[in-house]
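agent> Task received from the user: take the single chain below, predict its 3D structure, and emit structure tokens. No templates, no multimer pairing.
agent> Plan: (1) validate residues, (2) run structure prediction, (3) serialize to tokens, (4) report one or two observations.
agent> Step 1 OK, no nonstandard residues flagged.
tool_call: predict_structure(input=
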Amino acid sequence: MGHLISETDEHRVAEVIAEAERKTSGEIVAVLAAESSTYLYAPFLWASMIALTLPLILILGTWWPTSWIYLAQLGAFAAVLTITLPRPVRYALVPQSVKRARVRRRALEQFLVQNLHTTEGRTGVLIFVSAAERRAEIVADAGIEERVPKDTWQGIVDRLTAAFAEDRHVDGFIAAIEEVGAHLAKHFPPGSCDANRLPDHLIVLNES
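)
tool_result: status=success, residues=208
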């Protein structure tokens, strides 16, 4: 998938995170992942379904011998797999509900991996974007959920997702971080919990 963001833009995001955290005792971690799943099962699933259906059609509609039907079945599987394996086609085959669930699961995993659940006062917030799915998630710890309505995060997620859809990756991240920081500053001013212990830079997962 290539490099997701330039080094210059990473520094811009890091500066915004640091500035936001100077105004709050909460912790903000931003993660940009190449994708939340490879979805490699989708091409094989479609190829298998078509290959398994084809013999019935040929048996009922033709007088082909069994050996020909078997070869046609193998050919259909290979052809469909070749067509659907490229990333854009593969992603198009996956329902939005599945992609949404995979992104949410990956965001929750990163919330734990980045140790946001260990903050004093439970005031950690993860801003997570999965580039391939062009979806975003915000995960807030229990201390924040008690004070900030959940629909607050959804509005930020919607704007961040829209920015990624328009290829305004950095602007979207910066706006989201500033909005999250403003809510944290309001409810968790500096000094109300422990000092900054988590990374202030944008964490980029380029594993795909």
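agent> Step 4: summary for the user.
The first strand starts at residue 27 and ends at 33.
agent> Done.
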